[in-house]
Specification:
This protein is of the alpha/beta class and 206 residues long. The chain has seven helices and nine strands. It has one domain: 3-Layer(aba) Sandwich (Rossmann fold), CATH 3.40.50.150. Helix 6 links the parallel strand 4 and strand 5.
Length: 206
């Protein structure tokens, strides 16, 4: 993971430029639809606060900005300090540099958005990260996560990826106390990457 973070630190500006305009509206809308069904449909929480989303591994800040523009409260974080600096420029608010294994939130978020960010977490560490996500979510909180579609661990240059298929991803969620609401495949939305497939999961804290 240290090597992966070093890669993003070194390539932060280039990476953010390449991903900040990717159209993730299809997945965001599915996530927000479930989020708005939580308890009081279409309403704010009983304390009057906006629904609170954790953008876990926010990258360029693309999705955090979309959530903010839609009126949600957003906490954005990333493990790469340089990526955080780039995201802060886009969303105009603080972006926290925190690795997933060091999260210490407790029932703070209505939803967690982990778009293309858990795919670098090893199979031995992913359960610990999901437990921290579970702790961070409020009752019936919604988790969205996406991974490259495939089997096993693979190296791609300086980065290591951990891929999933439907069965392994569903089993991972269920064994970590999430109920699976939807699992679906999508094509990469970046230019000239259409042949690459992603697997996406929407899950609810049980």
């Amino acid at each position: 993971m240290n090597q992966t973070i070093a890669y993003y630190d070194k390539n932060a500006e280039k990476f953010c430029d390449a991903t900040k305009d990717a159209d993730m509206s299809f997945c965001r809308n599915k996530f927000l639809c479930l989020l708005e069904q939580k308890k009081h449909i279409g309403e704010k929480d009983t304390d009057g606060a906006k629904r609170h989303i954790l953008d876990a591994g926010c990258g360029s800040g693309r999705d955090a900005k979309a959530f903010l523009d839609a009126g949600y409260q957003v906490t954005a974080l990333d493990g790469s300090r340089k990526i955080c600096e780039e995201a802060k420029k886009l969303i105009k608010q603080e972006v926290f540099c925190i690795e997933f294994e060091k999260l210490q939130f407790w029932q703070e978020f209505d939803g967690i958005w982990a778009c293309a960010s858990l795919l670098h977490v090893s199979y031995t560490q992913i359960r610990g990260v999901l437990k921290r996500f579970w702790d961070a979510l409020k009752e019936e909180g919604i988790l969205y996560a996406s991974f490259k579609y495939g089997k096993g661990m693979r190296a791609d240059g300086e980065r290591v990826f951990y891929d999933y298929e439907e069965t392994t991803l569903k089993s991972l969620m269920i064994s970590n106390r999430f109920s699976v609401e939807d699992i679906f495949r999508t094509q990469d939305v970046r230019k000239n990457r259409e042949s690459e497939q992603w697997i996406n999961v929407l899950a609810k804290k049980q």
